[in-house]
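Hello again,

I reread your note about wanting to compare the complex against the isolated chains. To keep things tidy I'm splitting this into two emails, and this first one only covers the full assembly. Below are the input lines as submitted, including protein chains and any nucleic acid or small-molecule components. They are followed by the predicted structure of everything together. The single-chain runs will come separately.
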Amino acid sequence: MAVRTAAAIAHPNIAFIKYWGNKDDLLRLPLNGSISMNLGTLHTRTIVSFRDELRCDTLKINGKEISGEALIRVRNFLQIIRSMSTENRFASVESINNFPIGAGIASSAAAFAALALAGSTAAGMELSEAECSRLARRGSGSACRSVPAGYSEWLAGEDDLSSLSVSIAAQDYWDLIDLIIIVSENHKKVGSTAGHALAATSPFQHSRVLSAPERLQECREAIQNRDFNRLADVSEKDCTMMHAVMMTQKPPLFYWEPLSLEIMKTIMEWRKDGIPCFATLDAGPNVHIICPASVSMALQPRLEKIAGVKEIIRSNIGGSAVLV
Amino acid sequence: MAVRTAAAIAHPNIAFIKYWGNKDDLLRLPLNGSISMNLGTLHTRTIVSFRDELRCDTLKINGKEISGEALIRVRNFLQIIRSMSTENRFASVESINNFPIGAGIASSAAAFAALALAGSTAAGMELSEAECSRLARRGSGSACRSVPAGYSEWLAGEDDLSSLSVSIAAQDYWDLIDLIIIVSENHKKVGSTAGHALAATSPFQHSRVLSAPERLQECREAIQNRDFNRLADVSEKDCTMMHAVMMTQKPPLFYWEPLSLEIMKTIMEWRKDGIPCFATLDAGPNVHIICPASVSMALQPRLEKIAGVKEIIRSNIGGSAVLV
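Full-complex prediction:
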């Protein structure tokens, strides 16, 4: 049988309302919904080919053959695709990122969004956006948010069928910019999959989850009304809440570095002084400074002057995962 | 009538299980109990004199005449003493600290413990330790913990009568040292009295208060059994929990400075490597490193090597508030 190939591009995303902790770790059903925006400047491009001659699934990232846990995770994911389709051969997966992986820019989100789309297409399926989002979730929870375009809300749902993301505003609806300050390029000591599983050991996780619907509504309305201050307030609070849960887990997980805190506190001061900007961090030390595109050019040189800041990645808002 | 004078010395304290938030702000009845140790090397020495010729209460701290809010707080406190006693004259209060005030070393705790003892004695009363602790609480909540000796537990209680501190172990029961790293000598932007009143605006305060009895028991037992690792685990967790509440209050209260976080993370690493030490912070940026006296001499030079650390104050454990 002929080689069947497909290629897709997907963007990482940065969450305003965070995902932390599952009600089902295997299916990656989250305890609370979450909201993010896709990062258009950053992407992962993935080619999947199902081939007769392969004796196992293979994975290359940025040109390098990968084994170990990352390969196992991809194999498990390809197994789900095979079980959904008539394709039962092994596949080669080649992924190229244009951004550093494992440092708090959600590389696995872009990776599994692209893999879900390319893999399902190569396997002969034509998934709807909802179906593709649901599938991507099985590889990495936040990947489901990278499937729809622009501002994306992951509806927590109750089961595999109902847990998926939808776009709540297109990428051109509101022109925000993410200035990502790279605090560390080191790989995380504790990956987020392991961290999620321990979320329940924090005495604060229950309150965080219980109060998430209010923050989701606040965030959704802030985006729909392009109300920057409202988005800033709720995002800042939700970020602190997630990191407070992480820091009170057993064992404690401190993703904040001193420089992260320095930047967060500086940004809070600037916002008090009337500059529209706020900081948010995913499961890593890098700080994402969100601001309207109109102020981003003036903000960037000010950020570069903070002692210790070396690299800033600038991103606009991205579209959906697409076949290429 | 003759001048009536008394002088007392009291120590500040550092809390292992923290006090944050009241069920009665006026009476300073706390939402949860707390446990601390007195810092013997640091003290406040206070002289109170009730005199015929005074036309109002006066206050001197470290030789400087004080007015404004600090004076009002002391006057309100002297008013309580007058209402309890037959003394109805105004008083002069002179306080001398041998440590910097307003930077996270609980200066108000030592101040009101000394004032409660000196003031009540000058007014002709002979209060029991329990009565004096209860009185000190009215001036500053944590001051009630500085009245009894050594390791002190504040029993939250239900009303003015039942809310006071008792010693759970004498100062020579367990030879711990506090190495206080002065991160900032600046006065706090938000004082803790104002911060306490906003504790309820954090979505985490309720869980913190609800789970405090477990941590109190854990801490009490750790002290009674001289179990350093147990004390370290529960104190570190309780400290993070209090600061998580502060950071998620409205408005957020970030007492941690980048250097505070740097030290906290370094200490966590050292402890993983087997060095018995842990870090805790009250409502300020200074980091208190607690360790057995036997390792404190080796630890201090290592702490001094952390970039940015300028001043370290070393304290042993202190006794009760005493008349001098």
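For quick reference: Residues 4-172 of chain B form a domain with the Ribosomal Protein S5; domain 2 fold (CATH 3.30.230.10).

B.
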